[in-house]
Batch of 3 targets.
Target 1
Amino acid sequence: MIALIQRVRTAHVDVAGATIGRIGPGLLVLVCAEPTDSTATADKLLAKLLKLRIFGDDQGKMNRSVQDLDGAGTPGGLLLVSQFTLAADTRSGTRPGFSAAAAPALAQPLFEHLVAQARAAHPLVATGQFAAEMQVHLINDGPITIPMQVN
């Protein structure tokens, strides 16, 4: 799976003019499934997301995860948004190819599994809508943006 992780002060997703997912401080994660991915891949991605230390501690070092955003046990939000365009191949021509992304029949169940596991493991989880035309609004904090690939 491919993920683009953004540390945010706030983020929300709109579909057809209505906000369907919103978080305060936390992580906005754009997620793309690849053809060889499985539920085990999604589980591995989630484990990394929940433990990724990209929030500042009292000395300003990135030592805290979304599970302990403020050092006092307060968790941050996790906004998961499916985005197949992360698998874009731009090596030739001017029109990206997307053959490296999983087909919707595989990608949707994997994304739904990731969301279900995230909700079971973390108290503040919001999502976009799979295959919908979405508008994603965010205030990137830092800015901190980290690409991640999990196999």
Note: The two ends are 6 Å apart (CA to CA).
Target 2
Amino acid sequence: MEKRYRPNVAAIVLSSRYPEKCEFFLGLRTDLNNVWQFPQGGIDEGENPKDALFRELKEEIGTDEVEVIAAYPDWIKYDFPPVIAKKMYPFDGQTQRYFLVRLKSEARIDLETHEEVEFQDYKFSTYKEVLEQTTHFKKPVYKKVLGYFKKEGFI
């Protein structure tokens, strides 16, 4: 049987101090134990990825006050681990579009603006810390995307 992938958008959020300081937003999920990740979410029917990006940022971190620096050129697929696959049924994984964004100086993060709170805490981390602190099944994707943005000179 062919695998089903949920269309999804993900944001690599840099602090407003970029480019002087390169620090990445990581959110601590409310529904999984000690899982740090970038903001992300499903793309609604008929919604384009960029609109989904702004909507998801507003829902998950309480602000869409960002400027888009770059987009990863391709969709990236990954499979869910079994425990998450059950929760995300009928999907076997996600196909994601990644955007690199910078918080505007007036942006204020508020994790509790949406009914469904996704993150219980957040921090800004270095490139190395992101790869050390994120959950195992996202690491290969994060390495690939961050590596691309680094190679292109954005980070």
Note: Residues 5-151 form a domain with the Nucleoside Triphosphate Pyrophosphohydrolase fold (CATH 3.90.79.10).
Target 3
Amino acid sequence: MKSDIMARPSNREKILNEGLRVIHERGFAGASVRDIAQAASVPLGSFTNHFPSKEAFGLEVLDRYFEQMREFNERFLNDTSKTVRERFKAYFDQEIADLNSNEMRCGCLVGNFCAEVADQSEVLRLRLAKIFEDVRAGYKAVLEEGVASGELSADLDCERAAGFIYVSMQGAILISKVKRSPAALENCREQILQNILK
């Protein structure tokens, strides 16, 4: 017989879930361990029981966020009912809608980490570099579909184009945050659709 009582999240889960939210809102340096424990409603000692350092916690937060990113990317970019251009347009449209929904304040956690900690932590820098490679590989596979089907130019360098799309989008998100306007990301979308995916 199943219990009607839902299992409560462990303190570790609460710290990761709330910590991700707090770091996304305040930045990695701006979110203290105390802030994270307080947001998770756990004793401060609970954080140090589960994570040997804030850096180790940052790695786990990045991994958790990347899983969400991977699901998001797959939902839009692996939708084979649409053309490759339609998939990337829908992908950008959703990114823009997400930015608008919180007034351009949070952006992409991966991009935020790149801007904030790449020079401060070699461990985090290497994890961010691996995320870039994984995202680029996903984009590249989709672009290769477009080339194989004849939708995209046969001479498109899929690997370079995939990297360009990702770094352009990350830069545009950061500028959209600074200007509190989606214009940079909208322009990025149009340039990629018109000049790369042709």
Note: The chain is about 75% helix and 0% strand.
